[in-house]
Amino acid sequence: MMKAVFGAMFAVMLLHCAAGQTVHTVGDGVGWEIPPNNSFSYSNWASGKTFMVGDILVFNFMTNQHDVVRVPQASYDACTQDNAIGSVITAGPANITLDSAGNHYYICTFGRHCEFGQKLAVTVVSSTPGGASPPMSTPPATPTVPATPSP
Ligand SMILES: [Cu+2]
Questions:
Q1: Domain count within the chain
Q2: Are 51 and 93 in contact (CB under 8 A)?
Q3: Which key words tag this protein in UniProt (predicted)?
Q4: Which of 38, 69, 102, 127 suits a disulfide with 88, CB 3.0-4.6 Å?
Q5: Band (132; pLDDT cuts 50, 70, 90)
Q6: pLDDT 10s digits, 96-120
């Protein structure tokens, strides 16, 4: 029952997103690399951008020189692939669709690349445009303006 409802919602969501999805090239011209200098970081790249459910991250890298895997925050902080979410993507460039709201963390597992800064955290927001809000888990009175998180 719940599964069917969720499936239907997901299908609707996909239809909605097909038109409005944004493709984000991670690192822009730098691509998915060890940051080449101190003035570049993936957190700087991500800051000020809005990532919506359904958007696509493109990790531009050469196969066999880097890879990308989604990990939980603890593994991102520690630069390990413990408890990886899904499998390591070894072939570049890799397109990853942001399939859920929340914080998503990605690292490269090659050598010490992650420790050298090849790691990305993005905050993904729900793309529901206000009109058809899902009946569950979303407070009805929430405005569409991104709220500043208050502890
Ligand atoms: Cu790497």
A1: 1
A2: no
A3: Copper, Disulfide bond, Glycoprotein, Metal-binding, Signal
A4: 69
A5: very low
A6: 999 999 999 999 999 999 999 999 9
Is 2 a domain residue?
Answer: no
- Determine, yes or no, domain membership for 92: yes
How many angstroms does the Cα of residue 146 sit away from the middle of ligand 1?
A: 32
Cα 125 to ligand 1 centre (Å): 27
Q: Ligand 1 centroid to 15 CA: how many Å? A: 34
Query: Distance, CA 138 to ligand 1 centroid (Å)?
Result: 37
Tell me if 121 is assigned to some domain.
yes
For the question of whether the overall pTM of this predicted structure is more than 0.85, the answer is no
Average pLDDT in the chain: 84
Per-chain residues with Cβ under 5 A from ion ligand 1: 66, 108, 110, 113, 118
The H helix count followed by the E strand count for the chain is: 3, 8
Eight-class DSSP state of 30: G
- Residue 109: which CATH number? 2.60.40.420
Separation of 107 CA from ligand 1 center, angstroms?
8
Helices (H), the chain: 2-20, 42-46, 73-78
Length of the chain equals 151
